[in-house]
Amino acid sequence: MASFSIGLNGKPHGFFAGARGLRQGDPLCPYLFVLVMEVLHLGFLQLIEQDLQFSFHWKCEPARVFQLGFADDILLFCKADIDSIRVFKVGLDRFAKWSGLRLNVQKSHLIISRSAQEWKDQMLAVLGFQEGHLPIRYLGLPLISSRLTIADFILPKKIMKEIEKRMRNFLWKGTTTSGYAKVAWIDVCRPVEEGGLGFKNITSLNKALMSKKLCDVIRCDRTSIWVQWLYHDRLRDTSIWTIQDHGGSWGWRKLLRLRPFLRSSVDYQIGNGATFYIWQDPWHHLEPLIERFPRGPRLLGINESTSSVMLFQRESGIGLPLQILSVWRSPTPCHRFVEERTGLFGDLTKDNPQHRPSTN
């Protein structure tokens, strides 16, 4: 139970306990709020699983995202149709009956895509909300911001050079106009312990901040909705290390180009293999197996995205494990090495001469 004090002449005088309920600032409030929001989420989830007419937003369906929360505000996503809107209406009404918490319809908005404008009036009537438009404003600020930070995307080289130029000029002259640099900028950016001034190198800082985002993807951070969405929408059973960088947005392509920078700094500890791609991930310090043995999955008739440590298996069900490290150490061509260890290439190619490995 929270205690309160009355301030007189700038000083608190005594404390008294609240008669009932909780007040703002009570230590229990955040935990109780999380529990109540979890009830709301589970209520929606139950209705969605029971109602086959509910449809996810097409970009949210792979990761099954239908709700996001920001403090005491929530965002709900669905396909722009009456049936899906009704599911949310039932969930909100049921939650209000359970908890006594009812949405303020005057402050709630329904944002409808341009392709569904013909059903706009019907959907607004179901929820009783006002029509909203992007960008959404949260606490007075646009939730979809057009002003990005250094941790949001790879800065163009021209921009980074201009920022560092202005920093140098301001350091030596006190203005952003051109001035004579007394010390090389690389020395200025060294730590104080090494004789520098401890300034941040913009290029290195930007690369480090963006590499952190890439690390979240590499280690499969399932607590991140963004990472979950990437695995369902972008990667789709493909390793982050081998996916091509010619698709997707400009920011996504720039992020993928940081992979060579991280590759020498990443060590793999293979667990149960659930999120591990044995052919594509660089678990060995030399190179991914698919680069050393590019025709392996096709000739062996297996999926190169497999995470199983049992790479080879005959039709009889008998597993043929292969010592992967031996592939790099073997002086013979890879296909001949595997043939010698498993006898599998003969089984796969004897009926199709054009697929037989070269003996050269």
TrEMBL record:
Entry-linked InterPro entries: DNA/RNA_pol_sf, RT_dom
Residue span, Reverse transcriptase domain: 1-143
Sections of the chain in a coiled coil: none
Pfam families, sorted: RVT_1
Protein name as annotated: Uncharacterized protein LOC105179327
Annotated organism of origin: Sesamum indicum (Oriental sesame)
Annotated gene: LOC105179327
